[in-house]
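Chapter review: from sequence to fold.
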Amino acid sequence: MPDSVAPTRDRVVAIIPVGTLAGAKSRLGAVLDAEERLELTVDLARATITSAVASTGIEEALVVTPDDAVRRLAEELGARPLRQRDGGLNRGIDTGRAEAVAAGADAVLILPIDLPDVSTEAIDAVLATLDDPRRPLVAIVPDRHGRGTNALLLAPPDAIDTCFGGDSRAAHAAAAREAGAALVELDGPLTLDLDTPDDLLLAETILRPVDVG
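The token string follows.
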């Protein structure tokens, strides 16, 4: 089988990076107090991990975090926690990718936890990109502003280096072109993330337990 032809079904590992809970979502401090932000972050982590674990297209979900409480939550929900010892989001993702490669993954889906409309169906829609036989393959779900990266699918797992932070959509697209990878950009529910009070207002109907008024 030529290298450019994908196997019948890719072995996909989800990598879910989660920072420390203390001080999480500080940019929402104008509308949510510390306790509300903590509750929101835990709820988002729970929804993301649960959705990834439930996807039949994902063989294993890895939760990379320096936070003991998040690792306990990951275990409770059926994911495998990995302790992040190095600082920075991209370093944590690299830890997850190394573990995924060691486990024989053909692809990784990098999924941050600040996506209020995350679901198994939304994840499966991103995984459907793997039907494209071209390799290497990079699929990006940008944020609603077209600047950030809300989900990143890489086949193989080391197709490009990750560039989360700042204008990461453009950085990931440039890295894909430089690597000669097939590049796919996707729309859908995962384009909404929670960074600002305006984002929180847009997500109001999804996050009913959270008072955004």
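Two observations follow directly from the output. Residues 12-202 form a domain with the Spore Coat Polysaccharide Biosynthesis Protein SpsA; Chain A fold (CATH 3.90.550.10). Residues 34-54 form the longest helix (21 residues).
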